[in-house]
Amino acid sequence: MATVDNTMGASLLGVIFAAGLYGVSCVQTWYYFNRYGSKDLWYIKTLVGLVFTFDSIHQALISHTVYWYVITNYSHPDALSKLVWSILLEVLFNGLIGLIVQSFLAMRVWRLSNRNVALTAVTSSLVLAEFGCSVAFTIQSLQLETWEQLAELKGLSMTVNVLGAAADLFIALILVFYLHRSRTGFKKSDTMISKLMLFSVSTGLLTAFCAVASLVSILVWGKTLIYVAFYFSLGRLYFNSVLATLNARNDFRALTDDPEDITFSLQTLSKVIPRNRPTISIKIDTTQEINMEKDSEKSCNTDKSHEDCSMIP
C-alpha cells in the first residue's frame, strides 16, 4: 500500500543520500583535475568532465522532483498522483552516466584480455542494451501523466536494472580473472594486483547491489517509490568508482617503487622477461682482469730488471 512514507519519504531519502555522494564526486573531480589535469590524455579528461556534468544535471533533476511534490504542491494532495517531468528525465541521465563509465571499463576488458573480441562484444552488448532500455523508458514515460499509467512500463524498468547488474558483475569478474593471471611472482607487483582485484570486485558489487536492490523493490513494493531510493544513487556510484580508480593510480604505482625491484605497468604485468638480469658486468670484469694479466706478463718479459715484476701473481 502506498503511503507518504514509502513514496515521498523514500524519494526524499534517496535525494539526500545521492546528494552526499554528489559531494564526494565533487571533491574527487577537483582532486583529479588538480593532480592529473595536466598529465592525462584529452579523452580521459573529457570523460571526467562529461560525466561530472551529467551527474550535476541528474542531482538537479531529482532535487526538483522532491521539491515539486513536497513544497510546490504541498497544499495539493491530488498532485501526488501525477508525474513530474524531472523524475522521468533523470532516468536518461542515469543511463548516460552508466554508458560512459561502463564503456570505459569495457575498454579495460579489451586491453587486459589482449583484445579478446568475444568478451568485449558481450560486455559492450550488455552496456548498450541497458542504455537502449533507459532511452526507451524515458521516451515512453514522457508521454504519460499519472503514476498508474507508469506502472505499465514496469517490465522495462526491471530490464534496465537487470542489465545494469549483469554488466557490472560481468565486468568485475573479467577484470579479476585477467588481473589474477597477471601475477608475476614479485611481491610488490603481486600486492598491487591483489589490491586492484579487491578494488574491482568491491566497486562492481556495490553498483550491482544497488541495481539489484532497485529491482527487488520494484518486484516487492511495486506501488511505492522505495526503488528510487536506490536508483537515484546508481549514477553517483558509477562516477565515484571511476574517479577513485583514476585518482588512486599513483598510490598503486607506489607499491612497486623499489630500486631493487622491477616496476610493472598494467599492460606488461604478464610479460616477465628473465633474460634482463644484469649478468653482463661479470663477464666484462673477467675479461679486463685477463687482459691485465697478459699485459703485465708481457711487461715482465720485456724488462726483467723491473723490481715490481715479482709482485704479479
Structure keywords:
single chain, disordered C terminus, 2 domains, mainly alpha, 74% helix
| Shape by Cα distribution | elongated
Q: Radius of gyration, rounded?
A: 30 Å
Order of helices and strands, N to C? Answer: HHHHHHHHHHH
Summarize the main sheet.
none
**Termini separation (Å)?**
102 Å
In total, the number of domains comes to: 2
Secondary-structure blueprint:
Blueprint (H helix, E strand, L loop, with lengths): L4 H32 L5 H31 L12 H28 L4 H25 L5 H4 L3 H28 L5 H34 L5 H6 L2 H14 L1 H6 L25 H23 L11
Helix pairs in contact: 1-2, 1-9, 2-3, 2-9, 3-4, 3-6, 3-9, 4-6, 6-7, 7-9
Structure description:
The protein is an all-alpha fold. The protein has 2 domains: 5-254, Up-down Bundle (Rhopdopsin 7-helix transmembrane proteins); 278-311. Helix content is 74%, strand content 0%. The chain contains 11 helices and no strands. α1 runs parallel beside α9 and α4 runs antiparallel to α6. The longest helix is centred in the middle third of the chain and has 34 residues, at 187-220. The radius of gyration is 30 Å and the shape is elongated. Residues 259-313 have low confidence and may be disordered.
